[in-house]
Amino acid sequence: MLASHYTDCDLEAGCDEAGRGCLAGAVFAAAVILSKEVQHPLLNDSKKLSEKQRSYLRVWIEEHALAYSVAQASPKEIDEINILQASILAMHRAIDGLKIPPTYLLIDGNKFKQYKNIPYTCMVKGDGRFSSIAAASILAKTYRDEYMEILHAEYPYYGWNKNKAYPTPSHYQGIEAHGLTPYHRQSFRLARQLKLF
User: Fold this and answer.
1) What is the number of H-type helices and E-type strands within the chain?
2) Is the separation of the CB atoms in 127 and 139 below 8 Å?
3) Could you tell me how far CA 177 lies from the centroid of its own chain?
4) 30-60: pLDDT as tens digits
5) pLDDT band at residue 186 using 50, 70 and 90 as cut-offs
6) What is the pLDDT of residue 81?
7) H, E, C per residue of 138-173
8) In whole angstroms, what is the distance from residue 112 CA to residue 60 CA?
């Protein structure tokens, strides 16, 4: 069972992102506030869960969270400000969307920019340590996966329904055969190595 809270603050929001290492598509982020009494034994880092478990927990989180929000930063924004800054921007937007303002922020990873005057702590591998970050990781992942399914219907040559735009052989094969789409991140170092632009 993950820890429920890091501080004594009741309105502690966990934040995480999904899609940072992808070649295409937006980066998604989620913010979740869970009460200290609300726990689920399955809650964990989204990468350690099956698709079926993530789908189940997404519904559970949305029903039981005090507040939750999911936001994104576009491929254009990623190219303009870089992927790290775009991930932080998406997190800020997710926090903006919470119906209850948090009094403390728990951020997965080791980089963040102050959001308003709310105190925060960065947690490396926090999605495997704290329920609120795990919940945020599940929402960010499931919402982004749905988004990539929609983009796959528009551009079916890259295997996005399976690889979700991560740098896999099937994705590279699609790029080599069909070039880049408007959703590809022009600034991404791995794509540049292919000398496609």
Assistant:
1) 7, 5
2) no
3) 29
4) 999 999 998 899 999 999 999 999 999 999 9
5) confident
6) 95
7) HHHHHHHHHHHHHHHHHCCCCCHHHHCCCCCHHHHH
8) 28
Cα 126 from Cα 69, distance rounded (Å): 18
Distance CA 192, CA 151 (A): 22
Residues for the chain: how many in total?
A: 197
Half-sphere exposure of 141 (CA within 13 A, CB side): 24
Residue with tokens 């399914």: 149
Closest C-alpha among 177, 114, 110, 138 to residue 32: 138
What is the C-alpha separation between 179 and 172, in angstroms, rounded? 9
Q: Alpha helix (H) ranges present in 72-130?
A: 75-81, 83-96
Confidence (pTM): 0.94
**Strand 27-33, strand 12-18: pairing:** antiparallel
Q: CA–CA separation, 66 vs 100, rounded Å? A: 8
Phi/psi of residue 188, nearest 5 degrees: -70, 125
Q: Tell me which amino acid residue 154 is.
A: E
Q: How far apart are CA 187 and CA 71, in angstroms?
A: 21
Instruction: Average the pLDDT over 148-177 and give the result.
Output: 95
- pLDDT score for 100: 97
